[in-house]
């Protein structure tokens, strides 16, 4: 049996590219949100702790699909009134923007916990050493905490990124032309659903494998100074 | 926030929530049953026993659930043999397709949890069982599995919560569970924020109840008593 894509190959490739773009932009937003969430959760101020805890609990308790739908359809009226107020009535969220926000929000909620664990894993003495050297708080964060946190958090973040990449399929529900949406279009004309969804599945599998290899390299780099200590 | 609207549609939303719980309940129990042989085979010493469950787990964990749902619900109909086959009345039905897919999907994850749990059992305990004259099967049944169940329980409860959220995808194959029902109501009322808010609260409450239930179960099974080794 040879694989006949009925000329939809380039469309699927374009879809894969869109999936990668979406995953990377959601990743950037999610990393920022996760970092802020973890800093809020580990801060000594109670209201900030509540804010961080509330964010991660609320977002993790509701399905990703619901966030996607809520952000895409739920913000229409809000953005319209905002648009009228600033004199630009056609203001609306594109499927890509809504997908980035929804997936970034979900990634950030899980990343909050990963980053928090990593921050707690850094020995207290390192922070105190920074203080003893007269470093300011932001400087301690930037020079001492973040570089070490990165190494500890990387395996957890890698898992989350794999989940994120598979969750990009959800954005097809609001019409973004990524792998799933392109496959659906191909199915309507070719009438071969199994073939095309299986091809889509294998595209996702290969993306996962590439991400796994990338993570392996990153983890090796991040653990440069530690490899010998363990072995 | 339009509370009257939420209250008016609450019975329908609860109806959807019930279907969600039904899907998740069947999937995580059937998935567990399917995962036990898979997980045991996956932690086997022989590579030819490991290979098949490894491929299965790799496929189901490496592809999105949405793709798997579409493969089963839309994809299987491509084949004449399936449409003529005895299982067609089931595979034609979105409900059974969702249950089959969710079960196969969660079984892959549970099998991996089980493998981790089996490999986390201190080898000395298994050797002790064998030294006491237990056969391999007895050791598996009385020592390895009960021990693995306690080690894997926290991870299993995580998986159940993840499935609760993953079941929202069943709405994409026309099933009127919590998310699907909400979308149907919104198509009629044009009030996405209120209805999605209500659905979100239902999910949060369900997740909270499940977490508390598992906490009770962990206490009943004395999970923490086994952790100090």
Keywords:
heterodimer; A: about 230 residues; mainly alpha; MetI-like fold; 10 helices; about 0% strand; flat; B: about 230 residues; about 85% helix
Question: Gist?
Answer:
Chain A is mainly α and 231 residues long. Chain A is built from ten helices and no strands. The mean pLDDT of chain A is 89.
What does this structure look like?
The complex is a heterodimer of chains A (231) and B (229). Chain A has 231 residues and is mainly alpha-helical. Chain A has a domain at 17-177: MetI-like fold, CATH 1.10.3720. Chain A contains 10 helices and no strands. In chain A, helix 7 (137-167) runs antiparallel to helix 9 (193-222). The radius of gyration of chain A is 21 Å and the shape is flat. Chain B is an all-alpha fold and 229 residues long. Chain B has a single domain (3-227), classed as MetI-like (MetI-like fold, Orthogonal Bundle). Chain B contains 11 helices and no strands. Chain B has helices at residues 3-42, 47-62, 65-75, 80-84, 88-91, 94-120, 123-131, 136-166, 178-189, 192-220, 223-227. In chain B, helix 1 packs across helix 6, helix 6 (94-120) crosses helix 8 (136-166) and helix 7 (123-131) packs antiparallel against helix 8. The termini of chain B are far apart. At the A-B interface, helix 3, helix 8 and helix 9 of A face helix 2, helix 3, helix 8, helix 9 and helix 10 of B.
Number of strand elements of chain B:
0
* Tally of discrete structural domains of chain B: 1
Main sheet summary of chain B: none
The assigned CATH architecture of the domain at 17-177 in chain A is: Orthogonal Bundle
Euclidean distance between termini CA atoms of chain B: 53 Å
Low confidence ranges of chain B: none
Rg over CA atoms of chain B = 21 Å
Q: What's the CATH topology name of chain B? A: MetI-like fold
Global outline of chain B: flat
Distance between the termini of chain A: 49 Å
The CATH superfamily of chain B turns out to be MetI-like
* Contiguous helical run count of chain B: 11
Organism (chain B): Pseudomonas taeanensis MS-3
Family (chain B): Belongs to the binding-protein-dependent transport system permease family. HisMQ subfamily.
Keywords (chain B): Amino-acid transport, Cell inner membrane, Cell membrane, Membrane, Transmembrane, Transmembrane helix, Transport
Membrane topology (chain B): Multi-pass membrane protein
